[in-house]
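CATEGORY: protein folding

GOAL: derive structure tokens
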Amino acid sequence: MNGKVTPGLGMKKEYGKSPRKGLINGLGKIENERSAPAKNTKGVKIIAVAVLCFLVLGVFAVLTYQSQQRNTIAIDGNFDDWQGVAKQSKERMNGVPENIDIAEYASTESGRNVAFYAKVYGNMLYGDGRYIVEVPNEN
């Protein structure tokens, strides 16, 4: 069986089953069609693995950096945990009582918490203690 060539389109009719690309009813094979050359996928795979490794290492680096940068401030009366926080200071103001004149101040955040630090020239909680309520220890 000979196929009939359609003029001007470069199409060829095929009859029956064909091992070539195209429709079995003969309406799809373009003459002189070449299969795409095989691409070098080994190099692409190596680059993909390298990029994936870089991204995974980058995530671990960012998480480690963030965990080291967190300032965990405990409200316990010990101000040693404020050592790594940058503080701003200001000069003493004339006419302002030293118990309310701020000498240093700072703020920091840790996750969803925000902590504030203030130091005055005098005693911030100055008083005679008559308003302090003491709770007896039950132990």
